[in-house]
Amino acid sequence: xxxxxxxxxxxxxxxxxxxxxxxxxxxxxxxxxxxxxxxxxxxxxxxxxxxxxxxxxxxxxxxxxxxxxxxxxxxxxxxxxxxxxxxxxxxxxxxxxxxxxxxxxxxxxxxxxxxxxxxxxxxxxxxxxxxxxxxxxxxxxxxxxxxxxxxxxxxxxxxxxxxxxxxxxxxxxxxxxxxxxxxxxxxxxxxxxxxxxxxxxxxxxxxxxxxxxxxxxxxxxxxxxxxxxxxxxxxxxxxxxxxxxxxxxxxxxxxxxxxxxxxxxxxxxxxxxxxxxxxxxxxxxxxxxxxxxxxxxxxxxxxxxxxxxxxxxxxxxxxxxxxxxxxxxxxxxxxxxxxxxxxxxxxxxxxxxxxxxxx
Amino acid sequence: xxxxxxxxxxxxxxxxxxxxxxxxxxxxxxxxxxxxxxxxxxxxxxxxxxxxxxxxxxxxxxxxxxxxxxxxxxxxxxxxxxxxxxxxxxxxxxxxxxxxxxxxxxxxxxxxxxxxxxxxxxxxxxxxxxxxxxxxxxxxxxxxxxxxxxxxxxxxxxxxxx
Lengths: 359, 162
What we know:
heterodimer, A: alpha/beta, seven-stranded mixed sheet, five-stranded parallel sheet, 19 strands, globular, B: alpha+beta, seven-stranded antiparallel sheet, two-stranded antiparallel ribbon, 5 helices, 28% strand
């Protein structure tokens, strides 16, 4: 059994910021990441971020990953384990990890920050298992990490920020986007994103859904139809799109089985997109010494995830005895940043969700 | 409709334009940010206090017409690529428009390219008069096109043949 001070599970935007913040406070930090590289979703985000300067607004996600890693690299009290998956968190505080699907061992940390992010929701329709039907995350990884075109002509399902951004990036990669659909009556993502893809000539069809995919060995066609206010397909409104990719971008849901396993009290909160941990204002869950940050506590923008990470890392470090002199100042700065990010109309649902989980 | 299609109405667009008198004096930004989102790099990027967002970063940016020099730095910094610059001072017939353009191939100075509107529809052929792509623009090049004045409220994009 290995001992550790603070373990951060997941090296995405929230986890990296939690590690930086805790390391700055003087805590010994161990970051555990299941992928080969740190950065989480940032490594595929070629677009500029929103927010303000403190959340790296106007920088590109790919570059923000580099900046955070450089910052993290400056500390000698940070250790990083990549290709390592936390497979269990137990009542006695022990966590078990699997390294390269080969070595299995236990770690006993003093505190944990769970920043495991979110995973993509699926969409049920006939033939949705045909090759050529991808989640938006996979399309972004293929294109922006590996430089591989996912196909030649894409139907995007979902007009949230991810659907809009990935559509734009597909066009940048030289792929045609036939249309963007959304079952909702209004575009869910930022309208500046919608406008920039619209002026490339891509139609955005609200109140539309995929009815069926057609193809023998791979997708050759998508049948879409209009939906009524209860999201039921309206007969006779079917349209066909000849596409070789259907990209599904219908939202994310928090990935937090570890928190459930550990016994943290969880609650289903639709505004936060799924089951999320009940927590206090320090991002500590109902299990003492277990903190959570980022999409695992509710799906939101990466800018908020980063600030949540800074805040959770600061508070988790303090909990195990590493409290910096400027703790209060830093904490109130992070709280203010989160309030600023969430004070507008687009975050109203997030705030109404957070109200339900903060104790 | 805007929230269903992503296409702003003509009134929304013209409402964001400075007066023709101002445009005729020299380059000036048009900030097409219609909805409150948490974002303020346009304000941060401007050295001349030409765009104000204010303490609440969800506020819609307001152009400070007297201070804007039309330098186009905000065009490359706006994460929504929502800003363009118009300049009616170069000639009586034509207008010059600067737009952010993040696609390859980049056009070259002197090229004739297809000018598109906010729906992606063809408006008219336009001449590329400048291509700015310095490191500080961080991979958001700014293209200056020249076109007949009558298209001032329509042109918003270009299509470059590979």
